Amino acid sequence: MLKKIYHLGYAVENVEKASEFYRVHFGAETVEPETVEDQGIKATMFHVGESMIELVEPTRPDSPVGKFIAKRGEGFHHVAFEVEDIERSLAELKESGVELIDETPRIGAGGARMAFVHPKEAFGVLTELVELRGKGE
Ligand code: ZN
């Protein structure tokens, strides 16, 4: 089911500041953050080999990332796995009784189809599934 680690998501208070940090100190090639209003986030990513780091700032305190930072502070937030077929992965997980946050995929940053598995099912780690290839038109 899993192809690779697509990205690791960090919850940050200020995505521009965090980008600047990785640009200056690690030579990361960062791009302009993108706002995903549906999720209440402003996010950007930079490559580390074939995986990426996603920096996620909440756009409102009551969004999931806003609540995460209020409770636990900045830090590691989620892992995203690339999968071949997100519908099939979600169906298989659901069928085996794994609790999902998103039962159907939604459109995340960069236009990729993604869904979250509940962290209580994955040993406390919020787990995101991402399908990159487009399907049909
Ligand atoms: Zn993510």
Short recap of the structure:
The protein has 137 residues and is α+β, with helices and mostly antiparallel strands.
Helix content: 10-25%
Helix and strand string, N-terminal first?
EHEEEHEHEEE
DSSP helical segment count = 3
Q: Report strand %.
A: 35-45%
What fold name goes in the CATH topology slot?
2,3-Dihydroxybiphenyl 1,2-Dioxygenase, domain 1
Largest sheet strand order: 2-3-4-1-5-8-7-6
By secondary-structure content and strand pairing, the structural class works out as alpha+beta
How does this model look, in words?
With 137 residues, the protein is α+β, with helices and mostly antiparallel strands. The chain has one domain: 2,3-Dihydroxybiphenyl 1,2-Dioxygenase, domain 1, CATH 3.10.180. The protein contains three helices and eight strands. Strands 2-3-4-1-5-8-7-6 form an eight-stranded mixed sheet. The chain is globular, with a radius of gyration of 15 Å. Zinc ion binds next to β1 and β5.
Q: What are its keywords?
A:
3 helices; globular; binds zinc ion; 137 residues; 37% strand; 8-stranded mixed sheet
Could you give the topology of this structure?
Elements: E1 2-11, H1 15-26, E2 34-36, E3 41-48, E4 51-58, H2 64-72, E5 75-83, H3 86-95, E6 106-107, E7 113-117, E8 126-131
